[in-house]
Amino acid sequence: MMPSWMQITLLLIVLLVIVLIAVYGYWARQVQKPAKGNPTEFLAQGGAAAGQRVVVCLGASIVHGRVSVDFVDLLRQRFSGQGLAFVNAGVNGDLAYNALQRLDSVVACNPDAVVILVGTNDVQCSLSERIRKLAARGKHLPVTPSIDWYESTFAEILTQLAQRTHAVVAVSQLPVLGEDLTSLPNTRTGEFNDVLRQVAAAHGAAFFPLHERQAEILITERGSNGPVYTESFGPVMGAALRHFLLGQSLDDISRRNGLLLTTDRIHLNSRSAGIVVEWVIEFSSGQPSIATIDRRRGSCSHLPIPLPTTAIRRP
């Protein structure tokens, strides 16, 4: 007996659902894959080699580098063979609160420098009730996110790093959120960046105006108006699917989306990642020395950071 058209339709629907589940599962595994050179991996491999200085980069998905160009790995390549180990302590979706909860793993790496770029998810929570509720559940937040909570949490991160490590600390502004500088998301990001600047100054941390560097490029090349960030997850999911399923580079996705500095209006393309790399080089060159622990003797010494002879030029 031949199957009816209803049976065939049902079978096709079941097959489609199975395919969609498989595709989603693959996408989720790729996006959530641990960062290359994360603290667990770094420590499992024995930590820093003798005489090697450790730089930990702390943040969320922009640092994690799965749906954003991995600037930590670019730094790793840039300083290859020059006595620096870069640890990627970025975790997708984290707020400043979550970064604070992970400080034990940062401290365990015995860092000589810590670079912090975290807070875009805090900004997004301030813009959307839906995102705020999702973050509260998914990230186990004890309070409703706010700019005041962000300020106190970030201050605690810097306080603990000062108390528990010998590391010099550098804080980055949050990057553009969408490429329309006149939009509410970028206005709100500016408010958070004002807080960051004040907290960094109060704790003696270096401060990098990433948002301002990006704004200069946007104004010069396109003016203040560009694609606007919205709370929809569509651009982020679409970019990730195209990257992991279709093999498109993040820069190709950025270009096809009509963007200059981001891949999906949130995460960095190579141009923005290059700005961060340049900043870390500038920050390093401005340090006459980095306090490093001689791990064989347990004592503290001061060794200059070996720098490349050329720096990445600003876009």
Give the key terms.
single chain, alpha/beta, Rossmann fold, two-stranded antiparallel sheet, 14 helices, 7 strands
Number of strands: 7
Find the structural class using helix and strand composition: alpha/beta
| Residue windows where pLDDT falls under 50 for at least 5 positions | 288-315
Major sheet size, sense and barrel closure? 5 strands, parallel
Q: What oligomeric arrangement do these chains adopt?
A: single chain
The overall average pLDDT, rounded, is: 87
CATH superfamily: SGNH hydrolase
Spatial gap, N to C terminus:
68 Å
The order of strands across the largest sheet is 2-1-3-4-5
Radius of gyration: 21 Å
Tally the structural domains: 1
> Can you tell me the CATH class?
Alpha Beta
Order of helices and strands: HHEHHEHHEHHHEHEHHHHEE
- CATH topology call: Rossmann fold
Account of the protein in words:
With 315 residues, this protein is of the alpha/beta class. The chain has a single domain, classed as SGNH hydrolase (Rossmann fold), CATH 3.40.50.1110. It is 50% helix and 12% strand. Strand 4 (168-172), helix 10 (184-202) and strand 5 form a beta-alpha-beta unit. Helix 7 (120-127) crosses helix 8, helix 7 packs across helix 10 (184-202) and helix 9 runs parallel beside helix 10 (184-202).
